[in-house]
Amino acid sequence: MRAIIVDDEQPAIDMLNVLLAPKEQIAVVGTYRKPAEALAAIAELKPDVAFLDIQMPHMSGLELAERMLSEHDEMEIVFITAYDHYALEAFRAGAIDYLLKPIMENELDKTISKLLKRLRPAAAEKPPERMTQHAPAIYAFGEFTVSIGGERQNAAQWRTVKAQELMAYLFINRGKSISKWEIINDLWPDCSTDQAHSHLHTTMYQVRKTLKYYEINAVIHFRNSHYRLEMDELVSDVEQFELLPDDKEPIMEHNLTLSEQRLALYKGDLFGSWSYSWSTSLKERYKERFVATTKRVCQFLADSGQHQAAVLRCQQLIALQPLDEEAYVLLLLLYRKLNNRTAFMALYRRLEDMLGSELGIQPEESVRQLYEHWPESKG
User: Fold this and answer.
1) Do 115 and 30 share a structural domain?
2) What is the CA 284 to chain-centroid distance, rounded?
3) pLDDT per residue over 239-271, tens digit each?
4) How much is the pTM?
5) 9, 89, 262, 371: least buried by Cβ within 10 Å?
6) What angle do CA 310, 314, 318 make, to 5 degrees?
7) Do 157 and 28 share a domain, yes or no?
């Protein structure tokens, strides 16, 4: 294994060099006291492992690890620290290991064994095989899942809830350069500056390692304090949903099937039960588009005589939007066309009860007129 050491204290570098020198499995190919110099050498050296001191001036080991992985993601990280609480940060980051100063040789041997297993894994230790017939996919409606083989059940497992949220955040902003300050403000608004930076670098490191572990071809770039996710080979339900006809394009026979296929992708609110505060407005925008497009599809189906298909769509919409009076009106009109008085009366009373109990109001005058002018409606 090719290794580098980065520590702002020369005696610490020298001591680790002495401990590593007899180890035939490792060759130290570079030592650095300045993180920036180590970062500049990564592309040329391509080490298998980096031993990084966590607490360094100007750039912490956590930040350095994350930036190194953006240059060379085949590398493993071992953090070194004199403080137990920094060891906890290393554990949270998902590093292969951490070593406490002063480094004991038996602890170093354990770390080297872990590295050898990780770099030459047995078949049983390899990540789940990707299904070659399906590209990886991201599902964001009703949940947030990064699938490995295109199927929802074959999902990548995130080390922490925050790593999953950061991946969701990067996905929504895919292809855009996002300032680290914007990310911190959205994901860690209540943390101090130092805490927020530590959380960002730790969590970004986790995301990179998870993508690498599952062999998901998505790249997180970092430049000038901005991050950008590129995921050209990943498909997503959100991207397909965004191809729906806009409000100015009428639903017609030629785009009906495609519109219905894309509406079927909407399995619920964006990210489902994961209520990320930064996604609230976007969640509402997708829901509004789904509702508006569904109503247009229902109207087209009704106008073209496809009444049963329109009924099904309206029923699905009401299940999602139980307070949407306009959806009830669409369905009431359909029952009227189908002369289905029983269904009409049951739906009207359901609407009346729902508006009364939830909002303390009656159905609109036009809706009451539909009810009152059905022959023998009150009998």
Assistant:
1) yes
2) 18
3) 999 988 887 788 999 889 999 999 999 999 999
4) 0.76
5) 9
6) 175
7) no
